[in-house]
Amino acid sequence: MITVSIIGTGNVAWHLAKCLSAKAGIHLKQIIGRNGDTLAQFSEFAPCTADISSQQIVDVLIIAVSDTAIAQIPKQIKDGHQLVVHTSGSMPMNALEPLVNRGVFYPLQTFSKGFAVDWSNIPLCLEVFQEEHQVLLLKLASAIGNEVHFINSKEREKLHLAAVFVNNFGNHLLAYAEKICEEGNLDFSLLQPLAEETVKKAFVLGSENAQTGPAKRGDTISLKKHLTLLKDKDQINTYKELTNYILKKYGRKEL
Amino acid sequence: MITVSIIGTGNVAWHLAKCLSAKAGIHLKQIIGRNGDTLAQFSEFAPCTADISSQQIVDVLIIAVSDTAIAQIPKQIKDGHQLVVHTSGSMPMNALEPLVNRGVFYPLQTFSKGFAVDWSNIPLCLEVFQEEHQVLLLKLASAIGNEVHFINSKEREKLHLAAVFVNNFGNHLLAYAEKICEEGNLDFSLLQPLAEETVKKAFVLGSENAQTGPAKRGDTISLKKHLTLLKDKDQINTYKELTNYILKKYGRKEL
Description:
2 copies of one chain form a homodimer. Chain A has 9 helices and 8 strands. Chain A is α/β, with parallel strands linked by helices. Chain A has an 8-stranded mixed beta sheet. In chain A, strand 1, helix 1 (11-21) and strand 2 (26-32) form a beta-alpha-beta unit. The longest helix of chain A has 31 residues, at 153-183. The N and C termini of chain A lie far apart (62 Å). The model of chain A has no long low-confidence stretch (mean pLDDT 96). At the A-B interface, helix 4, helix 5, helix 6, helix 7 and helix 8 of A face helix 4, helix 5, helix 6, helix 7 and helix 8 of B.
């Protein structure tokens, strides 16, 4: 039996709590958070407290708070926890100094409260400061998912940066597409099979082989026609800029 | 039995030929293309010819050539075909003038030769100039897929523009992520579950609700740190520009 507590009441904390509370072999002891309202959303998963000083000693204490709040936590951690991990993609493991029994448990996925995720499919990126903690963290991760990787802080920050391009910027492009559909009274869901195929092809063929469209072909007539259809300034600029990067990448003259 | 021929030997033509040649109720009569080498890839699907003047009269003649080549085709079309359609997202139906029996059969998907597609899931966007042809085109489309929509030329060009944001630009962002992974000796496939979830969330929650990340939160520290990690000039500029659009969208100060 691994005993686990979670500090934090954000999206990652919520999904972890939901998952851990249902796992055999894991005992979720406490959820600790400052905000009483959000803390109430966790009451079905484990006992909740807003008082960090009342923390119970556990095998793995998971700090799932925002990046900027991590630095405040170590000084409030009691001695005796076997391992203390944060869940951030971009913060180094050493953000948990001076704790020696420190590590990272970074689930590489986007989380929204109430939107179910499939943990079996999420890459769990682990790091420990002391080798002796590898087995414990691996055991916890294996209870949660199937995709477990040891990845150090330097690698993880690059992975997180790549993830921003994929998710944050990727969603922003989908937002442009959604807006164009709305303005044209078109059902946005018409584009879902295309979006799914775009992802599938990039990972199966590689993004280089998967690139298609007027910019890759250097089809300036279509590109200019598209620009006349756009009215929103940000859409026009994004269209121009991304088009020019693709034109340049494939050795063509920029717009 | 609907008789069909295809003019063109590109990716769309290849996938249509493969699909139509295997359908009961459809007789794929001819593939017509100028390029002998690519035409040879179609010989398993139907009789092939490089001589457009040897075209046989069919119920539906599908013109699946590049946008810029469409204008050359109508004058080479014999009288007697029941319906002549092109497959372009961005060209209006009237690109087939002076043909009166004209229409559009636009499959909203990205196609690469040899990369299997699931036709049951592809939105087939139809348009006809003469109402009497609706039933015929609907019958053909229904034999191929389950997602059939009548969409006019004005709507289709907007849909195609939105598709460029989703696929061409979306893939370009995935290319950046792939490059960052390569440079960091990280397995690009670690990002596949995130990319799939990004698409899923945008269509289930809407892209507005699905947006997450440092730009949306206005987390300037993370944003500036990411910029120091990037070396490639295009990556830096894309990061800055897309970040600024998101910052602005959510009422925050630009970088």
